[in-house]
Fold this sequence. Notes:
Shape: globular
Helix content: 25-40%
Number of helices: 16
Largest sheet: 7 strands, parallel
Bound molecules: NADP nicotinamide-adenine-dinucleotide phosphate
Radius of gyration: 24 Å
CATH class of the domain at 302-441: Alpha Beta
Amino acid sequence: MTVLVTGATGTVGRHVVDQLLSAGVRVRALTRNPATAALPDRVEVFEGDLEQPGTLHAALHGVERLFLFPVPETAREVVAVAEEAGVRRVVVLSSSSVLDTSGDNYSGEHHRTVERAVEKSGVEWTFVRPDEFAANVLWKWGHSIRTEGVVRAPYGNARRVLIHEADVAAVAVAALLQDGHAGQAYLLTGPEALSQAEQVRVIAETTGRSILFEEITPDQARASMGRAMPQPVVEMVLDYLAEAVARPPAPVDTVERITGRPARTFARWAADHAGDFAAQHEGPSGIRHAERKETMPGTLSEQSVQERNKELALSMAAAWNRGELHGITKHWAADIQHFSEDRPVPSEAMVSAMEAGLAAFPDLQMEVKSIVAEGDRVILRITVTASQQGEFLGKAPTGRKVTWYMLEELRFNDAGQVIEHYDVFNYLPMLKKLDLVPADVL
Length: 442
Ligand SMILES: NC(=O)c1ccc[n+]([C@@H]2O[C@H](COP(=O)([O-])OP(=O)(O)OC[C@H]3O[C@@H](n4cnc5c(N)ncnc54)[C@H](OP(=O)(O)O)[C@@H]3O)[C@@H](O)[C@H]2O)c1
């Protein structure tokens, strides 16, 4: 039996992959970027994008069971493609938020759309509906714990029943591999309701670090979170924290019922992630430290900002590969500065050069060979392969397949817009192939 895991490089997906491998199952993993996926050797890695169901055929060929990461926009088409390929069982990574039927719950609607798409299909399904992940603590508090030994958050008494990502995966794997879970929707929580202040104390005790909990007002939190998250998400987070003070949630025993062992405690989760909380000093330069504090407001850790910036950079490379220049320019700040080979280039000239490049090389494909995030910058090493279909540097179309190499550096602002863009090229192999380099130059 072959199982395809989507979202395989994610917090839950990596555990699903590992636990399926441990159970001796043949595992396929879907990722939009195999080059950076870093999945175990025994996994068959397929490139594909859930937002583009047409890219999934190869990954789904011969697959009987599917772990589905929720992407509502295309869920119906994805399930149809899976069914057509022979998939008979789908386990959905959903959310406890679907149980909130108040009508204005952004996350509930997101996950309900996916659940409905699966329900309406002819596959056997199970919905895994976790409550809040313990792992959220990493992006909420990780940076300030590592660098300052402090957590600033509103609603210190808000109690949450945080779940370990490995337990979400364990229930999903049981539903994928065992019979008897068809048509079930499993609400999952951790084993205990802990206030935010208690969570901080557990992290401090488990990691042996002294960590201060500083309660801030909801308005202070709104201002700070609003710089890194969409407004509806900020309101959703604040609403459920307020609710968690008024009506603390109670743990449920689903993990134990389905897997046969108790859900992992928050202390266990903190121990598994102790390395993520290790003290970090921001380098010798006080100026750099001050700069960073200004650009990275408490709510999104520096690591999460860097991951987001990398994803944005990769999505821009993918847009090039689809010939969609808008997929790139939409990420530019209004006052972006471009530099090509260190020369400033106005935005309009940059767009014209990109259009000219695509006209001459319409099948252009970028392969990101490496990607590194440093502070607010992302640096990509890229190999481009394309065939010359249009005129280029006065050379009539040759149809020849050429390769060139480039280094691209992007600098992002807090909102994830590119504010500086540098390109450095090595065109020599391509110019040689097109007979555009005089022999005496070489
Ligand atoms: N955080 C919570 O408290 C919570 C609570 C309940 C439910 N949930 C659910 O769990 C999800 C987060 O799970 P997670 O933490 O494991 O995810 P994650 O760490 O954010 O990773 C998601 C993975 O999904 C893949 N992915 C994203 N969009 C994709 C697309 N269009 N096509 C193909 N792959 C795509 C990405 O892989 P590649 O980049 O390799 O393609 C990424 O590694 C949330 O979105 C929500 O639905 C979360």
